[in-house]
Amino acid sequence: xxxxxxxxxxxxxxxxxxxxxxxxxxxxxxxxxxxxxxxxxxxxxxxxxxxxxxxxxxxxxxxxxxxxxxxxxxxxxxxxxxxxxxxxxxxxxxxxxxxxxxxxxxxxxxxxxxxxxxxxxxxxxxxxxxxxxxxxxxxxxxxxxxxxxxxxxxxxxxxxxxxxxxxxxxxxxxxxxxxxxxxxxxxxxxxxxxxxxxxxxxxxxxxxxxxxxxxxxxxxxxxxxxxxxxxxxxxxxxxxxxxxxxxxxxxxxxxxxxxxxxxxxxxxxxxxxxxxxxxxxxxxxxxxxxxxxxxxxxxxxxxxxxxxxxxxxxxxxxxxxxxxxxxxxxxxxxxxxxxxxxxxxxxxxxxxxxxxxxxxxxxxxxxxxxxxxxxxxxxxxxxxxx
Length: 386
Ligand code: IPM
Ligand code: MG
What we know:
Elements: H1 3-28, E1 41-46, H2 52-66, H3 68-72, E2 76-81, H4 86-92, H5 98-105, E3 109-112, H6 130-137, E4 142-149, E5 154-161, E6 174-175, E7 181-182, H7 189-205, E8 210-215, H8 221-235, E9 242-247, H9 248-254, E10 266-269, H10 271-284, E11 292-296, E12 301-305, H11 311-315, H12 325-337, H13 341-357, H14 372-385
Parallel strand pairs: 1-2, 1-3, 3-12, 5-10, 8-9, 8-10
Antiparallel strand pairs: 4-5, 4-11, 6-7, 11-12
């Protein structure tokens, strides 16, 4: 056999073996962490790159303000995690250096600023994205991205599968010859089932009447086809919720159709479609800078912005004018996840006042608007007045 094909098959074999190990790990997993049973909740904070350290410091400041009594009582502790920088990742040639991963694993939940992902051909080593590495290493399988524009009737929650699809082995594609390259997309029954369950459970608990499954199963027949079948199986357990199925291309079109888009509620998607559609959806809410997300696993959870590290803002000296809204929205989700729903609701209310209603100070990303710290101050003042 052609030696190139032999070599590619060896890589493919290793890849399949590692995915079967992952399936066994999923089968062996226990239940979600019960935060109410913990004496102390450890919240790790990773600043990240670019504007990351600026907006995450502000988010931490607001979170400490909200949790002040619990910090004083020793019920919550903050753990600074400083090693998740591009420089340190390059030095270790790893998406997450081993000692940083240990620190992350010593926490229950993580608040993470955006990290820079080196692209192939950028001159930087081709290390894996820190986000993707963290989602996989901590098995954070559900990426939950709410998008709300109340005055337009938009109230969507995107449930993006977070560990599989095109991302599972995205860094392990094979250049078979100089001319032929292959990438892989992965779907497992366990992976599809668990994202569907968390989406339907959320829909049922939060009064959403409709779940829309979004794939390209007309083309990517095997993996997307299985994803739909596994989701339908879960849907059958929720007869009061309407389930419909869409292809990702027409869904991107319908989300800009003002007459139709208010019908949608929960969107349930494989990883890559979820990545793309969540940026489109966030743009309608005022841009990716306004959107936060939760990355939930059985054992760990991580909360972050949906956008990148905005290196251009730093290069142009505008870092202090970065908008912390996305990270503050992520903090709402963190509070809710650890069972502090009242505090989450209060922060959500304060953010709505500051970002959508009163808008006493506005961030423009430039000296024409408020600084990140001024906005954080405004949010804390608003919180104190509620
Ligand atoms: C996101 C981001 C990441 C992704 C990047 C930064 C790796 O776009 O969280 O949506 O592709 O998932
Ligand atoms: Mg994205």
